[in-house]
Model the fold of this input.
Amino acid sequence: MQVCTPVWPSGQIPNSEPVETMAPILSVRDLEKTYDGGFQALKSVSLDIQQGEVFALLGPNGAGKTTLISTICGLVRPTSGSIHVCGHDALSEYRAARQMIGLVPQEMPTAPFEMVGDTVAFSRGLFGMKPDPARIESILKDLTLWEKRNNPIMALSGGMKRRLLVAKALAHEPKILFLDEPTAGVDVELRHDMWRIVGELKQKGVTIILTTHYIEEAEEMADRVGVINKGEIILVEEKAELMRKLGRKLLSLSLTEPLVEIPGSLARYDLKLEDDGRSLVYTYDTQADRTGITSLLTDLSQAGVRFHDLQTDQSSLEDIFVGLVSQG
Done:
């Protein structure tokens, strides 16, 4: 995989003074898309993607995920804004920019009677690349499709068709791979296999941007997470840092005797009774100077509340995502 070292034309980054600097492999600035009916699908979206990272774009249905990807890939023309791919303007240098990108859509657009090997080779030729049987063989073997190379697409299982979409996207050796809901509707085994494939592509230097409804996918694979809602990017953060900043921990106390209600002396802790009064749950901020656990345990003892076990649980990325979207 050839390394892409993008630079902005004339050494300029959009909306900045001239400087000598290396640009991200993908940079989106003030991108907007309003359809003819007046619906605004994207609202001043700005985003930088670094080379070699795995970036997960999360958002509810209709948030703008697919519109954003389609616009970057040249399938939808933006109303305003700019897109640079490896330094190429995606609007004025469309061919150069598009050749840097591989797109794995949700649906298989290929004719069902085409042979697996032929359709992957054809995808390479669409981008003006010279035939390279060794490269096609390597891709098909990596995706466990080599034995199916002479089979018609209609004979493939759903999982194999999903692998074929990846093979077609990789045929012209792109630097950036977009995965639009890569494991939607597949079984758990294939989902984990796709995670493995993404990891191997990253090791080879491919920059990967994925949209997903499966929060565990982002938690498993992503270096950074972006959240889009109602056409706006509401947060971009490194996954670990996001969980550190916004994560909450739960302290669950298994009570010796069930409670009907929480004693008034414990009101300041905002405790919750669960499991028919057999469990007491305390939520605390991991970033606070003090968690309040020590004083809670002291006050529990003074209130005569006894427990025989306790455990802590960290918020998941899904908890954080749901919280962010609900705030939006």
Q: What stands out?
A: The radius of gyration is 25 Å.
